Amino acid sequence: MSKIHLTTTVNGDAVEALVEADETLLDVLRNQLALTGAKEGCGSGDCGACSVTLDGRLVCSCLVLAVETQGRRVETVEGMAKGGVLHPLQQKFLELSALQCGICTPGFLVAARALLEKNPDPTETEVRYWLAGNLCRCTGYDKIVRAVMDAAAEMRGA
């Protein structure tokens, strides 16, 4: 099978890769671009561990073919911190111990950032609804929701 030349933008940087037609975005991120934040938890889009944004839309990178990202903008958890300064969501996850094993954490962070970009002042119910596509086996979700709510308030200057 011949490879396809892919050019896209990942976390603000232009990137190129040679990909198979059936290769997922998740595999290219992890194996070719060394961006290992997105994890493969299920391979079927049910767990959210591989969440990224594609042109600002939250997607499961295990369900997106890499070739579908040609000329588009991909954002991963690695793009959240700027200049060594953690994003407010990352900081709140640490402060409130909203993580344990860490497998799901990157997906939750990307999903929460996507939510706050669309709605900077969500209710707790909206946060829980938005994050429903992300599964965690360790934390019980309450600390995660609290971290998102606190980060939202901080980002609004409340």
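Next protein, fold it too.
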Amino acid sequence: MGNEQDISAHYLHGDLLKAVEAALAELGKEPAQLTMDDLALVDEFHIGGRAATKHLFNQLPLKPQHLCLMLAVG
């Protein structure tokens, strides 16, 4: 299998949403009360994870009016 096919097979293994919901339920997490930390393990698929996202975010030319974005990233 080629690299592209390997990647597709990894993410198309079944119903990803149901798998994430089941895992969160197993942890006792309520969908309406999820935090960014609750979702970090399934949200940060790219190499580098949350640290890479924060590094990229910190390089953006943000202004005080963008405070809601800064609070969201942490």
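About the second fold: The chain has five helices and no strands.
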